[in-house]
Description:
By secondary structure, the chain is mostly helical. It contains eleven helices and two strands. It has helices spanning 21-35, 40-59, 66-74, 77-92, 95-111, 117-126, 128-145, 152-164, 166-181, 191-199, 203-221, and strands spanning 2-4, 10-12. Strands 1-2 form a two-stranded antiparallel sheet. A hairpin with a 5-residue loop joins β1 (2-4) and β2 (10-12). α2 runs antiparallel to α4 (77-92). The longest helix has 20 residues, at 40-59. The N and C termini lie far apart (86 Å). One of its GO terms (cellular component) is integrator complex.
Amino acid sequence: MTSKNSNNQTAQSPGAQEDPCFEVIQQALENIVNKVSGAWGVVVASWCLDLVGNLSDKYTKRKMSIGVACNYWLSCGTMRGLLTLISICFRKLTNLEAESCVETLLNAYQRYSLTFDWVVARLGGCFPLKIISQILQCSLKRFADDFHCRFESEVGILEYLCFAHEQVLRVVVKELLQEGFHPKKNLDTLIIPFLFVFGNYSDVLLRNMISVFLDMYNNELSPKPQIRCKI
């Protein structure tokens, strides 16, 4: 299937090169994820994420806005099938398993940053809490292993998601701050310095962190209502 663009050039839609065999593959993988216990969800989700990134990078011929890219790629049944598989897997993942998949997402974003933003937008819109929280958890663990590590990929994803899911980001940051102020494990003691370093990468994220901190601080200092007992 082809279409004419404004320059009278013929542009081929991604659906024109689809292999009908993928429907069989998709159904088989869905059955594995839904019916077989174990860590298949992580394997399938990671494979799909890497494949989506590879296909987007290979067949994107020009820079497109996120909305245009979503419409373009979702016209392809194979790409829709891959995203469906990822969504099914994400719904079934534990926090630890989701962390592994988010690492794959970050790696794909780093490799295919110019053509992968629409994937992040799509998945982030479906699972904002899970993706935002796991990105911050993965970043915290990287920080614990190497204080000098950099967070360009993580910040790029969070900045984008922040525009549509700012309140979700604030909820996650608040939970992190609470754990940092009242640490129960060694990793918790690094949360506050991690957030200081992380905030240096983005004014958008820093503003939200400060706002959450001030809300928590003001709530702690606000006078509590006094109950007077009549004698």
